[in-house]
Amino acid sequence: MYKPRILVVEDDKAVRNLITTTLETQGYQYHTASTGGESIMEAISNQPDVVILDLGLPDMDGVDIIKKIRGWSNMPIIVVSARSEDRDKIDALDAGADDFLTKPFSVEELLARLRVTLRRLRYDVEKAGKSSSVFVNGELKIDYAAGCAYIADAEVHLTPIEYRLLCLLAKNVGKVLTHNYILKEVWGNALPGDTPSLRVFMATLRKKIEKNPSQPQYIQTHIGIGYRMLRIPE
Amino acid sequence: METQRPNPDLLLQQIMGEEQKRQVRGKLKIFFGYAAGVGKTYAMLEAAHQASKAGIDVAVGYIEPHARPDTLALLDGLELIPPLLMDHKGVAIREFDLDRALARRPQLILIDELAHTNADSCRHAKRYQDVEELLKAGIDVYTTVNVQHLESLNDVVASITGITVRERLPDTVFDNADQVELVDIEPDELIQRLSQGKIYQKRQARQALAHFFSKTNLVALREIALLRSAERVNKTAEKRDYYAGEHILICLSASPSNAKVIRTAARMADAFHGKFTALFVERETESETVAQRGLTENLRLAEQLGARIATVYGDDVAYQIAEYAKASGVTKVIIGRSNNVKYWWSSKANLVERLTSLAPALDIYIIPDTLSPYRNKRRLLGKVQGEGFSFEDVAVSLAILIFTTLLGFWFDHLKFGEASIIMLYILGVLVTALVTKGKLYSAFSSLISVFAFNYFFTAPQFAFQVFDTEYPVTFLFLLIVSIIVSTLTSKVKMQAKQAAQKAYRTEVLLETSQHFQSAQTQQEILTELARQMLRLLDRTVLIYPVKEEQQELSEPLVFAKDAELESELYTTPDERAVAVWVYKNNKHAGATTNTLPGARCLYMAVRSHETVFAVAAIAIGQRETLGAFEKNLLVAMLGECGLALEKDLVTKTKNQIAIQAQQEQLRANLLRAISHDLRTPLTSISGNAGILMENGDILNEEKKKQLYSDILDDSIWLINLVENLLSVTRIENGTMNLTMQSELVDEVIQEALRHVNRRSSEHDIRVNLEDDMLMAKMDSRLILQVIINIVDNAIQYTDPGSHITIAARKSKDMILFEISDDGAGIPDEAKSKLFDMFYTVDKNRGDGRRGLGLGLSLCKSIIHAHGGIIGVKDHAPHGLTFYFTLYSEEVNCDV
């Protein structure tokens, strides 16, 4: 069986141990790096499947590392940060990170995020072969060519903006999209005054596709940061 | 002050503490000569070459283009700052380019002819002001001056050469120069040079020789120059801060001869090292128009020569001077002879006599008044216009006379006696004095009344003849009585007007001061100032407040005179630049001043001591000036405002210190609480982990699980504590830094529930929303903290199995959140203290450490920062309800 390779970039020894021990118990392969410079060397030489990156490294700013890696690779990056300020997370996500975890985090949470990311990765690989005019995720199906969305094979009636929102989330499934990014992509601009309408459209969209909108299955909210569509395990 | 590249020399100088101030400022060296052609510019350039060789960065700012060939040759090898080329009425003129020089920033700059008057479009009216700015910027300046340009010597030189020099330099500039080098040459040699054509072209030279450069003139000028330099050396040698007890006073007037008095007094004040005050006695009789301009000029001159200006109000000049002199310890009064004319008809003693009697201790100096043709013309002009001739008043006087005469005929017809008619005429004169301005009309009325009485009512009627010898006496008395009456009346009127003006001034100042007292913020004080200024001056007023932190001016507050949008005229970058200059230099500038007179506004600093709090701008049209009264009042008002602002600043600082102290106290309490409460869970964590490591083998699975879960619980408790502490520090560091966004209430509650204590599984938590599209404005991270804290609290203080309900609904423009439990509730007296910091219910409970007393007080701070309210009430039938409100967000879904 294929063991995914994870690069763990963390300067604190105890946390690094915690992460690697967790990975070991779940049968992942891992490499470690404790500085920014090292992390880039490792990323180049070992080509890991996923990078778990601590933002507060002694030698480099984590956001710069993300930008460097994004310069040549699309490998998923999960950011781990002790900073509780949302701004740092948003900067990291906008720089190209896929997901984030805030310290302190539980081991289960880390593993869940990792699974989500790997699922997306696997899907991307499978998808590479097929033509992708149809998006399928659990019971959700989007027919890009027809411009229609279905839940359990029943068509969902969406307004143009809801449909555009859904497509954007579907195309970035598994990835956290920041409010600004969504506003820019769907509305074409990013005025802060538009966030309330984004919230409302997201809520109506959810009502249409989620079975229980307060326990969402497809679209996850990250308060103060953005939204993400989850990949439903098959 | 601009930042300078640190260089070792500068650092060294800074260490030499006392010298520091002078070093930061540039040094001024003046090459001083007694006539053109003595070689000042030449000497200056040679000095510059030497400096350049010594490695100093030298640039030539301005050299007169008509300099002699030998001199121009010396310019080789020196960097020239290109002059500003300007077009003045079709004639191209060259001016020193101050801004380029400041940008270039050499260590030393050469500027010829310090006394030069700049073209209108330059920043300053005078070149020495340019130089002042260079010095302030830390640039050394070499410059040249001829003796006839010195302000105080102006008259002396003019009396020798017969030429009045227009370009004059205040003596203070000369005396405060760091170095003055006298460039001297024998007059014979100078004349020789001149005739060789070295100074002027041949033809001009002959002319110059005949007029200015006569040997006697040159010898005299040289003597003056040498004396002046010597005097300066004396002054520098004796530069002391005390006054030798002498206080010299002059009385300002609009008369052109006043300038000479001012100069003489300034020289005298210098010689005695005395104080120098120019007193202006404002009288009603002072006409406003032409004379005003003369007065402004004299006032400016006195200021330049270092006089302190004082204004008093009153009609009796001698009395006012004497009073002021007594009050201010004046020792010497200098008076020009023109102030001293005694008219033959005047019953009053003249000024000097009156002064001598009123203030016998005073030395009085009288300066002869030499007339020049220029001045005579001026004075004639002043006379005609100065009386304020008005046809209206003439018509009124005549009408009163005619009416009086008609009434007199009627009296005559009724056979009333002459005495009644005389009284009638006196009454007429009195009325005339009341309704007209100035004594002139009533005086003429008196005269005409006498003639009219003679002509119409005395035998023979209708002829200027009298038969009765008694009549001339009657006429004389009529004349005298009516003149006295009219004088008295107009005097009373004048005093009433002065009193009214004074009262108005006092009233305005008092009111302004009261308004300042009641104003709370800088903004309010400045608005009040502007409102008062607008009322007083009826001109558009702009106020540029100074931003405290950035040390720069913020956008102006505009208070336009009319509603029409003329304000753009006054907010151009050029106008703003003037305001900035005023702020940086703490001096008046703009319209009606010598600095940047082209501006549309007069700019004045609102200051207290040396701190400038704001810059006030007053729109002044071309050829307009502010009256002395208005200006005085304005300055007083600005001063008052400066004090108010300073007080405001002091109060603010005090408050800040108080807040800081309070925060320190809080922090200390917090630390004490934490250090106690952290130990317990840490002991449990480290102890349990230790047992597991050492004795892991002998413990059974169930026991191990218990220990693991204890470690987890305690660490989660620590995590929550840390989260709360972080939020606390965010609030404590001054104002809370909120990042407000609109969030769906539903999403926030769901997110919060994901983070509540894991023991929540033992409780039944329900969410009850009126509308799942409710949206509120909040800092989501902090509001999450609020909900988590309250729900955790409910979980902690109720038994497992209790119900917790989270509800939210809209009420007006707020969203009301209610979190209720059906636990035991708390007694009423505890409710009021619940939100206090470090308050925990039931301290003697075993796991008291579970409540640090931080959570709810934090909730209170957060909700208050959001502009909402928070509270607690009983929940029926039992339990507690916590409620708080947030502003709701109206959503527009049409986007």
TrEMBL record, chain A:
The protein's matches in Pfam families, at most eight in alphabetical order, are given as: Response_reg, Trans_reg_C
> What GO molecular functions are on record for this protein?
cis-regulatory region sequence-specific DNA binding; identical protein binding; phosphorelay response regulator activity
Keyword list (alphabetical) reads:
Cytoplasm, DNA-binding, Phosphoprotein, Transcription, Transcription regulation, Two-component regulatory system
Q: Where does the OmpR/PhoB-type domain start and stop, copy by copy?
A: 132-231
Main location class:
cytoplasm
Highest taxon in the source lineage: Bacteria
Which regions of the protein are recorded as binding DNA? 132-231
- Which protein is depicted? Stage 0 sporulation protein A homolog
Species, as recorded: Bianquea renquensis
From TrEMBL, chain B:
Coiled-coil ranges (or none): none
Record key words, sorted: ATP-binding, Kinase, Membrane, Nucleotide-binding, Phosphoprotein, Transferase, Transmembrane, Transmembrane helix, Two-component regulatory system
Which EC numbers does the record give?
A: 2.7.13.3
Superkingdom as given in the UniProt entry: Bacteria
Positions of transmembrane segments: 389-410, 416-435, 447-467, 473-492
The protein's name in its UniProt record:
histidine kinase
PROSITE patterns on file: HIS_KIN
Where it sits in the cell: the answer is: Membrane
Catalysed conversion reaction: ATP + protein L-histidine = ADP + protein N-phospho-L-histidine
Record domain Histidine kinase: where: 673-890
Cite a GO CC annotation.
plasma membrane
The molecular function GO annotations come to: ATP binding; phosphorelay sensor kinase activity
Organism, scientific name: Bianquea renquensis
Q: How does it sit in the membrane?
A: Multi-pass membrane protein
Cited CDD domains: HATPase (cd00075), HisKA (cd00082), USP_KdpD-like (cd01987)
InterPro entries recorded:
GAF-like_dom_sf, HATPase_C_sf, HATPase_dom, His_kinase_dom, HisK_dim/P_dom, HisK_dim/P_sf, Histidine_kinase_KdpD, KdpD_sf
Q: Does the keyword Transmembrane apply?
A: yes
Top-level EC class as recorded in UniProt: transferase
